[in-house]
């Protein structure tokens, strides 16, 4: 397996910063015997508890899959203005955006397709059943408590979509005395935002309520191509600002019903108005809604049972000016029962049932508007001295394509006190979307699921306040769905090979907190023909990110640097998107006990770049935020 050297791959497009990011990562990665060790006894443990990788609570140290956690402190410290802003440049992640805030944002995890990542919000599966996409641009970062990112296949636990990985978003959970919170901000391009909330809890129960809004005048989303007409954005010339408005509401609560039973529920609703450039549609009203509940019962010393149910609505009403131009609404209802049985110390068996139903409501008359899926899964996690193993198997029964079996096996070995090696193999699949199956005069109900096989090798070192992790992987995806000119319908005709490596770093160097990531990717199209051997579109081969922060009493400083190499925007690799690098600076000052002011300059050097051809990205921007936060 071979990989390009990161500086050489990036420097041609942006000489000012591309050398600094890999250099910073390389210097920090070379320090485990010196600066890292010097800080290893300074105090804080890095280990956190995660649930997404195994559907059970395990520490990041015990997880046999590559896991990254973004907690509430990091979210606040980063001052990210959107979920895409928070995730860009992280290990294994490529993002593509069509013109700034609120505009279509797609994610490629480890080079897999944009609909090959499963997204959960508080355990509820989300995404459009028609397009297969998750509206990342509409998920409010202000209401997020933490994010768990698991890279690699997880269909053996979750079923469809988990080819590239799983991302679970947790909304806020409050503890302690009930407190009020408030924030208000402003920024470039007429940006205004604000939020209020209250929450608290005790040993008996907890609650939280938050509401927020965000509005921006936006930028001119599409630069157009001039010739040919309608190139790129399906519009010739609309040099206006494309604004975005969002309102968000979140309600959560839980109660302990005795010593062994816990009941909790949550609801998130986001509504918005979006403007963009287009000749057929130029504005939309959107709704994203997630509701769910969980009942947890500790049935005995060795048995825990969990019942969960949830629903996700994804709605869009489209207009050209004020003229209706199509409405699409999908609903995904889900339920599960899961039992975790402790067989012995470090020996856990998990068994469960999942149920899912997708429904479509649209003024486009689909050939079919509902589909059900039922699944049985089992997982074994065992520890034997310095070794850990994980085995998982799942069988899905789907109304459209029938049965599908997926499985995974993972192994880990700790050695030399601070080191650990891991290896895993897993299969995964993605069910066809309703657009591919049932769109009038286009759908093909005979489509099979897209399927994959992945091998992953990892090596990690950790101290008390330092961690380095390296993973290399290869994924082969078969039966990818694409338009087949021989039958004039979509068909299972494509295949890809994805190879890559990821490096992650957490440490403290001379009082500065350093978090870094670098990724190398070879996303090869394996379909026979003129495009065989080409890169898959919109995936940068090299990406890197570094976050550096330090507090000086009530004052803190930080920076984020992101660099991405070139990519292509078509299968023929004739439309190139140049690489770029950006640098963000931020500062924070706590001027009273509960009051904080934050300031940020993003894209300090005003880099002009695109992540999708013909679609502009904001240049240099600024933002200010005032926060009243008694308990955080």
TrEMBL record:
Cross-referenced PROSITE patterns: TONB_DEPENDENT_REC_3
Cell location: Cell outer membrane
Membrane topology reported for the UniProt record: Multi-pass membrane protein
Signal peptide coordinates: 1-37
One Pfam short name: Plug
Domain TonB-dependent receptor-like beta-barrel: 269-604
Keywords: Cell outer membrane, Ion transport, Membrane, Porin, Receptor, Signal, TonB box, Transmembrane, Transmembrane beta strand, Transport
Domain TonB-dependent receptor plug span(s) in chain numbering: 64-166
Entry's family note: Belongs to the TonB-dependent receptor family.
Protein name (database record): TonB-dependent vitamin B12 receptor
Source organism of this protein record: Lysobacter brunescens
Native organism taxonomy: Bacteria, Pseudomonadati, Pseudomonadota, Gammaproteobacteria, Lysobacterales
Gene name of this polypeptide: btuB
